[in-house]
């Protein structure tokens, strides 16, 4: 029974699919490292430049020399009490949220995290030793924690950073982070790619998939800065860190939004001013062989549907949630609902696979869910909808 309790606590995540809510594991946003507005040092930006071709590894010093000027120091004066204070630092009198950014093209577009500029009034951006430049927030997507700022390109004396292809990243590859931790501009740290395809919770409560994990030191103020490969190309946007029991800074577990996701979102913001995401509208739990045995289910992998959003795409398609609450070693799970085993003919091992499959689609796309109901397998076609503003929205 203890194994089952551990199983449920580790894999049972409430989730409104279309960004299912991932289990949070003590992860916090690292940015808007709130610091008192004083005379912060100067950083630099990165770029929405086309993906750079394959290149040989270079020394960390060479990468820094080429890329540091493109990493921006962002300072955002807080107007709204809803502004992010991820590490519990209150934006008190005269305080400003600070973070990092990436110059992505020659038109003055700067990529950063949405939580860096959340609730912000005046925003300034500095590159290298230059003067602070007024910046406009073109748009922010809380579902991916990506925002795009715009500055006068004629005032920028820095080159955009080359963008890589995050699909080509492998575990064990070198990783370099440049940013402004605790207001210390253009700080560089290095490490490796520790893992791929992680999932983290976005500011709106949905899930960001395909996240890159690194042990390069990342701290408050690094948010929105680049995670760079050994060839000097941006492969991710640093966003969150895991912290110890006392909270605080890096413990060697950092997370970056993959640059391919960031490029797609930035393109939509620049072109349309907003971003669309597909939405399924369910809550679910990972199904394992142990849990299936307890519930007497004829499947050992998949997603056990726990809830269906009324009037949502899954509800319209007839997906059914469990209605009998079962307590197992102190944890509760709803039994009797559909079990999703495949999406478009591809096996679903758990919530992670289902999240990734929906996140890869657009609103209006159709997906075929293979479900197990009353011991029989059947296919259900679902037309995905538009994701609401938040999990609770």
How does this model look, in words?
- It is a single chain.
- This protein is mainly β and 393 residues long.
- The chain folds into two domains: 2-19 and 277-386, Pdz3 Domain; 22-268, Thrombin, subunit H, CATH 2.40.10.
- Helices cover 13% and strands 37% of the residues.
- It contains six helices and 24 strands.
- It has helices at residues 2-11, 60-67, 259-272, 289-295, 313-317, 351-359; strands at 27-29, 33-36, 71-78, 95-103, 109-112, 120-127, 133-141, 146-150, 174-179, 187-201, 207-214, 226-228, 234-242, 254-258, 278-279, 282-287, 302-308, 324-328, 331-335, 339-343, 346-347, 366-373, 376-383, 385-386.
- A six-stranded antiparallel beta barrel has the order 9-10-11-14-13-12. It has a six-stranded antiparallel barrel with strand order 3-4-5-8-7-6. Strands 16, 17, 20, 21, 22 and 23 form a six-stranded antiparallel beta sheet that branches.
- Mean pLDDT is 82; it is low at 1-27, 31-49 and 85-94.
